């Protein structure tokens, strides 16, 4: 799950259920037999009928926001059993939000850093108008945009 | 297999920088993305960062937003030598027709936006001028209920025409944020619900690559190449 904020399992269940009935109707939903087994806020496990995986992939792709927060479901993989899926696809560590507020100013867009994950940076823009067209809350940047070929004081080259 | 995402919007049209879009697309399994912003500035915002992203090809194209047919033709002619990929912001019946009649145009984006679709005359023109029709999956992801039903009806009409005239088809999510992106497999699963077979969907996702290759060669005039 990729999202702009915290996602609750209840909201996810509701959203997946509504996407399912919206796309396939009650009859199709009964045939998919899609259920959410577990969800920890970032990784989750779903069960579905084994011969309808592509249908389920499509319906998960139509989820664009969960409980009012912009989000996207990414399918990491499919397994035959819950045990195998847990071992293969659910990692144990989770991502922490960025605590020390850092500022970014690129001319076109400026704001404070919300979250850093590898090279990816989520930025809360000062001017909310910039994200109006896409309906997101944050601006997605990378360390490449901050142009960090020089080594910074913290020993990294992320330009922060 | 090469997959290309051919109709993306980055800052200032969307909310992501080109490099963020590139990293997200690479993670999803794309081998290249084409950024088609409405106001193509030179140089595009974040093009340096996009070059550093690595592992994925980032192409800057342009999407023409025009009020009338004449504007489509003049914008396409002036952009042809500046960018590698030209899309037209479709949706209006007249604009769709004008885009299909212009050989400078590579792709007609979201022709079903205003529920207009392409229509028989435009489809015939698109075949003659080799303009690809883009199946934009954005509404399928964003809309629910009646709006999506009407959009699906328009798409079905257009896909019938695409099949009848054997038009070039492209598939895109029209993403304006990394959260809008979907992986090639998800795009194919969505397209198959709309009646696009797997082989056709594979071709559609690989087509931008071959069009870019064609565009990058030096053409002196129609059918004459500078070697």
From TrEMBL, chain B:
Reaction it catalyzes: Endonucleolytic cleavage of RNA, removing 5'-extranucleotides from tRNA precursor
Pfam families: RNase_P_p30 (PF01876)
EC number(s) recorded for this UniProt protein: 3.1.26.5
InterPro entries tied to this protein: Pol/histidinol_Pase-like, RNase_P_comp-3_arc, RNase_P_p30
Keyword Phosphoprotein: no
Primary location class: cytoplasm
Compartment(s) where it occurs, according to its Swiss-Prot or TrEMBL record: Cytoplasm
Keywords: Cytoplasm, Endonuclease, Hydrolase, Nuclease, tRNA processing
Family listed: Belongs to the eukaryotic/archaeal RNase P protein component 3 family.
Functional note: Part of ribonuclease P, a protein complex that generates mature tRNA molecules by cleaving their 5'-ends.
Subunit record text: Consists of a catalytic RNA component and at least 4-5 protein subunits.
Name under which the protein is recorded: Ribonuclease P protein component 3
Organism the protein comes from: Candidatus Methanocrinis alkalitolerans
